[in-house]
Each structure stands twice: as C-alpha cells, then as structure tokens.
Write a structure and sequence with these properties.
Strand content: 15-25%
CATH topology: Metallo-beta-lactamase, Chain A
Shape: globular
Number of helices: 8
Strand order of the largest sheet: 6-5-4-3-2-1-14
Helix content: 25-40%
Largest sheet: 7 strands, mixed
Number of domains: 1
C-alpha cells in the first residue's frame, strides 16, 4: 500500500504541474515597446497566436485573423464556428475596421477559422492555400475575392510586397493533410487540416521582415531572402531538444541576417483576448524552456529579442 501511495502522489503532482500556466512576469524586461503613430511609418499590432496587423496609414495587411479562440472543451469535443462578437472585439483591439489583405499561413482552425469572416467584414482579399479556399467556400466567402498562393511569386498591395515561401508545421501536427471540399459549418477542430504551410516575406519601402508561424523549417526555403525582423513561431519549441532549436534559429534568424526576433504563437489560445494572455499550460508546451533558449541565443548572437504585448502598436524595425 505504501508503494502505491508513494507512486500515486508524485503522479498527481505531475498532472497538477501540467495544468499550470507559466507566468509572464519573469520575462517582462523583454516586453516589446510601443511606438507612436507617424505618418507613413509601418506599425505592427500583435493580437495573439500569429495574428499580426501591419499598417502604414494607407494599407493594412493581417496575418490569419483568429479571434474566436474557443475553449479547450469546445475544441476537443464540440464543433466550431466563428464567433462574430469576438471577431468584432478583436478588430476593435486592432484599431481598424478596414483591411486590404488577410494572409493565412496554414489552414488549422487557430489560423483559418475566422479568416473568411474577417476578410468579409473588412473588405479584404483573402490569400491562402487550396485548403483555405475550401474553408472560405464553406463560409460563403466570394471566390472572386480569394487569391490562391503561388509560392515564391511576389505580389504588391500598396507599399507592401508579399511573397509566400515554403514552411513546415511544427512537430506534433494533430490534423495533417489537405481540405479537399468546402468546409460547411460547424465542424470539428480536426477538420481544419494543415494544407500548405507558408512563411510570409514582407518588403515595405525597401525594408524586409518575415512572419514564420510554425516552429519548424524547410532547409533552403529562405535562401536569397533577408529580414531585419523575424516574427518567429515558437509553439511546441519548448518540447524539442537543443539541436532542433539551434537548427531552427540558424535557418530562420541567422540565414536571413535578422537582428530582431519577436516570438509569436506562444499564448494559450483557449483563453479569449479580453483576458490577459498567458503561455500554454505545461502539458502542451514548455514556455520557460523556450524563453531560456531564446534569451541565451539572442544574447550570444547579438540579436534583439522583444516579447509582443497584445494590442500594442510597435515599430517592426525597432532595435
């Protein structure tokens, strides 16, 4: 009996530790600074996961646009549809009701669930893979406003030049594959299959940045592309070994010559945006291990690290 009890108590403690969310306060010194609006200057607003608004006062480009953020039980056992109220609230936090483009990096629900609704409400064109097109068709989004990605082919919107580059989903993809037919709502989270996965290279007034949402990489995919700042997806990075993390940093940061890294896709997206963001709980990721790696590696390589604050307007080129 003693042996059983002795094994049981540590087991319960492990479960409880796994349910605990890490605090952000230990990394407060890396919070990204706000930047005042300046006519013509590029600004970025982080809105959780890999939802990023880039605007220059004339043109606005959004990646993903995920605001519904259904809870864990709904995601696991229920069926999903966009939450219009949360989308409206998310756009208020973004500070705009008009967009020129919504670019979807891949077709999982935490990237693509709301994207057609966001594009429809803001007048934007929707840009993504064939799988994202089937999500849009299932939601009644007008197909003439959908632009299917052609990898490596740049296109211009205002003063932005956007180029989609090949990427790979982070290890542990729970819904791989393509979406081969229009996805009629409501559907299960796992019906939102990955589809093609992209990095988005952004050139604006001769300066360059990269949005890379998934913590994995395709060797050589970024050859010939530079970036001053990388918005670096770190979801599940804490569960990988040091060699994986080093290779990831080398391919995304060192290879592009980036001098600034902004981690994204670290927040627990089962919490709504009207509550303070927190990292994934320990059973899903190891955020302290991720931040330990990022702070050490940034210091060693002379790269600036900035942890984004939701709703804060920032300067993508800040040192």
């Amino acid at each position: 009996m003693k042996g059983g009890a002795g094994h049981g108590v540590p087991g319960v403690l492990e479960v409880l530790r796994g349910l605990r969310a890490p605090r952000l306060e230990p990394w407060a010194q890396w919070y990204e600074a706000g930047a005042p609006e300046r006519p013509g200057a590029l600004r970025c607003v982080f809105l959780g996961v890999s939802t990023l608004l880039f605007h220059d006062g004339e043109t606005a480009v959004l990646t993903d646009g995920f605001f519904s953020r259904p809870g864990l039980l709904r995601m696991r056992f229920g069926r999903l549809r966009p939450d219009r109220r949360r989308i409206e609230d998310g756009m208020r936090r973004a500070g705009t009701d008009a967009l020129d483009a919504v670019f979807v990096v891949h077709s999982h629900y935490d990237h693509a669930l709301d994207s057609p609704a966001v594009a429809a409400a803001t007048g934007a064109r929707l840009i993504g893979s064939a799988s994202t097109r089937n999500i849009a068709l299932g939601q009644g989004f007008p197909d003439e406003r959908f632009q299917q990605v052609v990898v490596g082919e740049p296109f211009t919107i205002g003063r932005f030049t956007l180029t989609a580059l090949p990427a790979r989903h982070s290890p542990g993809d729970i819904a791989p594959g393509e979406i081969g037919r229009p996805l009629r709502l409501p559907v299960r989270a796992t019906d939102y299959r990955t589809g093609a996965c992209y990095s988005l290279h952004v050139r604006h007034d001769g300066r360059e940045l990269l949005v890379h949402a998934s913590a994995h990489s395709v060797p050589g995919a970024l050859d010939g592309y530079a970036a001053e700042t990388v918005y670096l997806g770190v979801g599940a990075l804490g569960k990988q070994d040091e060699a994986f993390r080093e290779a990831y940093w080398d391919r995304l940061v060192t290879a592009t010559g980036a001098r600034r890294v902004v981690p994204v896709h670290w927040d627990d997206f089962f919490r709504p945006l009207d509550r303070p963001l927190r990292p994934f709980r320990a059973f899903l990721d190891d955020f302290p291990a991720t931040m330990d790696f990022l702070t050490r590696t940034a210091a060693r390589t002379g790269v600036s690290l900035a942890l984004p604050v939701p709703g804060r307007r920032s300067d993508p080129w800040a040192s």
